[in-house]
Specification:
This protein is of the alpha+beta class and 200 residues long. The protein has three helices and ten strands, in the order αββββββαββββα. The strands form two sheets. Strands 3-4-5-6-10-9-8-7 form an eight-stranded antiparallel beta sheet. Strand 7 and strand 8 form a beta hairpin.
Length: 200
């Protein structure tokens, strides 16, 4: 009976993991996740930073247009690391379906098969999501989408979104811990003729 040593298989797994890790994206439109927004004064419109209504632990800062993107924004933290970039979302200047197919193919070649389809059956929303880990093993997602409607939540055209979920979660947890309501002590139960063990 022959015995196959497991180490070559483990080495292959480690090499594959290292390769996937090395390909994990961290920069979009010249902006990198985890960086301080203040170092992109020429790229971000810092004076127009606004709070995010349902997520007070974040602020949204517009990104100036360039040769590839007509608009976009970054989300930065307000608590654990104020001003640190946790998400970058950009809309491509080219809104065509041909361009969407082109960049979809390039992302498939670079990052492999997506982990999730981000679209709808009617074809008005198409897209893919890739999942990675950053060097600190925090989850990172890359989403490429195309929308053909006028939904105000989604918009129209081709968009790409790069998010470090670990950074977002750190901001949420920090804010919630700092703004947790004070726990009040319950008043001691009054004893009466029922000796304190009956419902009142």
């Amino acid at each position: 009976m022959s015995f196959v040593r497991p180490w070559p298989f483990l080495v292959l797994l480690l090499l594959a993991a290292a390769s996937a890790h090395a390909q994990a994206p961290s920069t979009l439109a010249g902006i990198s996740l985890g960086d301080a927004a203040g170092q992109y004064k020429g790229r971000l419109v810092l004076s127009k930073a606004r709070s995010v209504g349902d997520a007070p632990w974040l602020r949204r800062i517009p990104v100036r247009a360039d040769a590839h993107f007509d608009k976009g924004y970054v989300l930065v933290g307000t608590c654990a690391a104020p001003g640190r970039i946790a998400r970058i979302k950009m809309r491509y200047s080219d809104e065509s379906l041909d361009f969407f197919r082109k960049i979809s193919g390039e992302m498939l070649s670079r990052y492999g098969d997506p982990t999730e389809y981000k679209g709808e059956i009617d074809g008005r929303l198409m897209g893919n999501k890739w999942s990675f880990s950053d060097p600190w093993l925090r989850p990172v997602s890359l989403i490429l989408q195309r929308a053909e409607g006028e939904d105000p939540e989604i918009g129209h055209g081709n968009t790409v979104k790069l998010t470090n979920w670990g950074l977002l979660e750190a901001e949420r947890a920090c804010w919630q811990e700092r703004h947790a309501p004070a726990v009040s002590k319950k008043p001691a139960a009054k004893t009466g003729s029922d000796n304190g063990y009956l419902p009142r």
